[in-house]
Design goal:
The protein has 362 residues and is of the alpha/beta class. Helix content is 22%, strand content 29%. The strands form four sheets. An eight-stranded mixed sheet has the order 7-19-20-18-17-14-15-16, with helices on both faces. Helix 1 packs parallel to helix 7. The chain starts with a strand and ends with a strand.
Length: 362
């Protein structure tokens, strides 16, 4: 098959390099860096775009580095081991702002992305898959197993545990401030949490996020906070200590039980938790001054948006792990405008990025 020489000028929303073919079509290239001159071979073609693999790097970009991981790029766990960290952060900032303008048709902009500076050894949780012979991660865009004996993103105790695992079936392993001993615990700014179900996989970056949410929420002792999708109550408690009253809503029964334990453990009797779907939760006249929402990757359902609008808080703090669904939902929250927004690099070396937006009633 014929090859072409292209120059990479930017990145797609998923982090692939973007260039132009001789016929003017856009081509998306995995493992490319802005400024690369590449010889590529097309792998998939559409009327207006194409996908390609790198045949050889004719001239490397100044943003390109040698990957530290021996399993990259075959392993699907990372996306940006070939980029400088500065370029990765710029790429993620671009991704968020592109989503705001193209999907949300919004003039809102994120001017800063916060990070811990730690690009490895940060993950406190990992899921390994098995083919019955080996344990590992899936190859990118497939269910083929890439055997892994060490992952640069994991905390040391998880890598040590990986060596002792039997590869008969898939497994999820997790670490906390108390090591691998269940029940797991985490500590953020003096608050200690029992962990069950969802908890941020990067504890150090979670602290950056929680501090920003607390700053945006700006609660006072005269105000009431409502945290939707509250999980084990970590964010509810972190921000709710500034409020007169705080409530969390969560559908998972075990998470709600854990959240209540966490409130008692941290001596916060003014914080309560409800088990309910946020879209169908009966607020019984509760009028929160501020609503925090941190939904799954697919964002808010239409019913959840209606619920927030019905509650009519003075301000909303929206936390998202997907800029596209965030941009969509910001447009659906009629009567509210983005006052401030930032990004947090919760998942270094991957294409994922966390966002935090403060919305005020118009």
């Amino acid at each position: 098959m014929q090859t072409q020489i292209v120059t990479v000028t930017g990145y797609s929303s998923s982090g692939e390099g973007v260039a132009r073919l001789d016929d003017g079509r856009v081509v998306f290239i995995s493992g490319a860096a802005r400024g690369d001159i590449l010889e590529i071979m097309l792998t998939k073609e559409q009327a207006r775009s194409a996908n390609a693999d790198i045949v050889q790097i004719v001239s490397p970009s100044q943003h390109r580095i040698e990957p530290e991981c021996a399993f990259y790029p075959g392993c699907g766990g990372c996306d940006f081991q070939h980029l400088t960290y500065e370029e990765e952060l710029d790429l993620k900032l671009q991704r968020v702002n592109d989503a705001f303008s193209r999907i949300g048709k919004s003039a809102a902009r994120v001017g800063e992305i916060f990070c811990t500076g730690q690009t490895g050894g940060y993950r406190n949780k990992a899921t390994f898959h098995s083919d019955g012979i080996s344990l590992g991660y899936y190859r990118a865009r497939s269910h083929d197993i890439i055997p892994i004996d060490r992952c640069l993103l994991l905390k040391d105790d998880l890598n040590n545990m990986l060596k002792s695992l039997v590869p008969g079936r898939g497994v999820t392993i997790r670490s906390g401030r108390n090591g691998l001993t269940p029940p797991l615990e985490e500590e953020l700014d003096g608050l200690v949490y029992k962990v069950s179900g969802f908890f941020q996989v990067n504890t150090e970056a979670a602290l950056l996020l929680f501090k920003k949410v607390r700053e945006y929420a700006a609660m006072s002792k005269k105000e009431t906070l409502l945290d939707m999708c509250c999980g084990v109550g970590s964010m509810t408690l972190f921000v709710g200590r500034d409020a007169g009253k705080a409530f969390g809503v969560e559908q998972d029964a075990i998470a709600v039980k854990t959240a209540r334990e966490n409130a008692r453990r941290n001596n916060m009797p003014h914080v309560g938790f409800y088990r309910a779907d946020i879209a169908q939760w009966k607020s019984n006249g509760l009028k929160p001054d501020c609503v925090i929402v941190d939904p799954p990757r697919n964002g808010l359902s239409r019913e959840a948006v209606y619920k927030i609008l019905e509650l009519s808080p003075k301000r909303i703090v929206y936390v998202s792990c997907d800029p596209a669904t965030l941009a969509r939902d910001l447009g659906a929250l009629k009567g509210y405008s983005v006052r401030e927004a930032c990004a947090i690099d919760m998942f270094p070396r991957t294409a994922n990025v966390e966002c935090c937006c403060l919305l005020f009633k118009d």
